[in-house]
Design a protein that fits this description.
By secondary structure, the chain is mainly beta. The chain has a single domain, classed as Sandwich (Jelly Rolls), CATH 2.60.120.10. About 10% of the residues lie in helices and about 35% in strands. It is built from two helices and 13 strands. The strands form four sheets. The chain has a six-stranded antiparallel sheet with strand order 1-2-3-11-6-9, with no helix packed on it. The protein has a three-stranded antiparallel sheet with strand order 8-7-10, with no helix packed on it. It has a two-stranded antiparallel ribbon with strand order 4-5. A hairpin with a 5-residue loop joins strand 12 and strand 13. The longest helix has 11 residues. The radius of gyration is 17 Å and the shape is globular. The protein starts with about 30 loop residues before the first strand and ends in a 5-residue tail after the last strand. Bound molecules: fe (ii) ion (FE2). The site of fe (ii) ion has 5 residues, from loops.
Length: about 200
């Protein structure tokens, strides 16, 4: 029971609580935004494999995440759960589109609570790393780095809880146009390996 609270969801003035299911990551307070394979045209290296999946299996849910609509004011925080589903397009694992923040000098925190994956980080100058995500691991995305979650588990969705400055903004366009310099692919033995992105511009 709360004390001296109006129990109002999204009360950015006096505070609020919100549930996120520890197993599924869903919330009764807000449904997720969903990204289907058809919305990720051009993001996977193997375009033939991409086309084939859509043709033969139909559209697939690749990931979903919470957009709470927190007012984009400096000082406020936005948060939610991101769920990236298992799957591959060719050798490339299912992943989120990835983005820079519009205000480049803003960091973000992710906390993994189920699955197995990686966060691919890349700066505009080309520095990169791929940090492994396992349940119980928190991950710090530094200022200036684009970030993309990648699910390398064949069965379990990768679920993370994230928090970032509400005024950071999302720049998806740079990655949509240029891509990442590196890709995480299955090496053929269900082990992830890093390769250069043949489509990087
Ligand atoms: Fe972000």
């Amino acid at each position: 029971m709360d004390f001296n609270s109006e129990n109002k969801l999204f009360d950015y003035v006096r505070g609020f609580t919100m549930d996120f299911d520890l197993k599924q990551g869903q919330s009764s307070g807000k449904t997720t935004t969903k990204r289907f394979l058809s919305q990720m045209k051009g993001m996977f290296a193997d375009e033939e494999a991409y086309r084939k999946i859509l043709e033969e299996k139909g559209d697939q849910l690749v990931y979903e995440f919470h957009e709470l609509g927190v007012p984009e004011d400096a000082g406020k925080l936005s948060f939610g759960v991101s769920i990236c589903y298992p799957g591959k397009v060719g050798d490339e694992y299912y992943m989120t589109k990835g983005h820079f923040h519009c205000i480049l000098d803003t960091a973000e925190i992710y906390y993994c609570f189920s699955g197995h994956g990686y966060m691919l980080l890349e700066s505009p100058e080309g520095d990169w790393s791929a940090l492994e995500l396992l349940p119980g691991k928190a991950l710090y995305v530094p200022q200036r780095y684009a970030h993309r979650s990648i699910n390398v588990d064949p069965v379990e969705p990768l679920r993370t809880f994230f928090v970032y400055g509400a005024d950071s903004g999302h720049d998806y366009g740079t990655i949509e146009t240029k891509g990442y310099r590196k890709l995480l692919v299955d090496d053929g033995t269900c082990t992830p390996k890093i390769i250069d992105n043949p489509k990087w511009k």
